[in-house]
Amino acid sequence: MSESAITIGRFFEGVRDGQLTAIRCGKCGELAVPPKEFCPSCHQRAWQPTPLSGDGTIASYTVVRVAPARHAPDAPYAVAVVTLKEGVSLLGRLVDIPLETLAVGLPVRFRPLVLHQQPVIGFGPA
Ligand SMILES: [Zn+2]
What we know:
Elements: H1 8-16, E1 21-25, E2 31-32, E3 47-51, E4 55-64, E5 77-84, E6 89-94, E7 107-115, E8 118-125
Parallel strand pairs: 6-8
Antiparallel strand pairs: 1-2, 1-3, 4-5, 4-7, 5-6, 7-8
Bound molecules: zinc ion.
């Protein structure tokens, strides 16, 4: 058992501090977003923390125009699946990018956000 596997709590502590951290399998090299119990490739439990650059491109996005009550003041806003250059994908809020300029393939960079006192993955212009 790997004691260094990152919990979701530790992952978001890193987000708050401006650091995205993935986990890499010490057996086969598979890179994943925590938390994960077993490596999906080799079924081992040998995760090791690996810092991510935060640089990526938009793989998919949606513009939220009618938001849940606590996010309503922010609408319209966009959320995106961003594929980082290391190959893993993360869901995050897009900030400081005009909604009409959003496009799949647009380069973006990780930006830590705090919404309602919670650390949130954000992406802004690269
Ligand atoms: Zn593995």
